[in-house]
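Review this fold:
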Amino acid sequence: MASSSVNLEEIPSESLMNELLRRMKCAPKPEKRLILIGPPGSGKGTQSAIIKDEHCLCHLAAGDMLRAAVSAKTPLGIKAKEAMDKGELVSDDLVVGIIDEAMKKPSCKKGFILDGFPRTVAQAQKLDEMLERQGVKIDKVLDFAIDDAVLEERISGRWIHPASGRSYHTKFAPPRVPGVDDVTGEPLIQRKDDSAAVLKSRLESFHRQTQPVINYYSKKGIVATLHAEKPLTDVTDEVRKVLS
């Protein structure tokens, strides 16, 4: 035990106080286990940050967890790396195992937001089986529904200043001079992923894979469909109503 008290002594008082206040604020909150489903550009990332803070949940993004497990060289991470090195897909069982590990962190005590998983019905079933073994279940699936045409306008109008990361939008936040950064006067670029053609193929695969997952959870009566084309604050209000 002595070693942990030494570690605490090395932590700045401010950090300890902030963590203590966070835990006191989070203690009375009910547990929640959420899945967020939505196409690229639907505002899922923005809302998950708000939900995470308001409900004291941890944010589990499948890709990030996989990379973290690989770099930490956990037993599951080592197996995942072997598959990736061979150019194979990481098996559903491995990903569910990595989620299982991640859920044990103190920050996940009140529950989690799962993002980017499950992408298929088979993955959803494996996830449910794992949670059932722990005596818990998914409480809500938030479906960020948005018309493809709205997404295309949102994403294909995006222009970036590469050096600073400043972003503009031809319709919603245009630069003062078309194609030029306001601050430096340097040219703006469009990311490959933001082209209409790339978006179209990403959306096609999203709908093909994910619609069955939404149907699977709909049968359990836990899907809430959000109007993700609305302004950010309106979507936040919708989310709050669903989760209250």
User: Anything to note?
Assistant: The first strand starts at residue 32 and ends at 37. Residues 196-218 form the longest helix (23 residues). The mean pLDDT is 90.
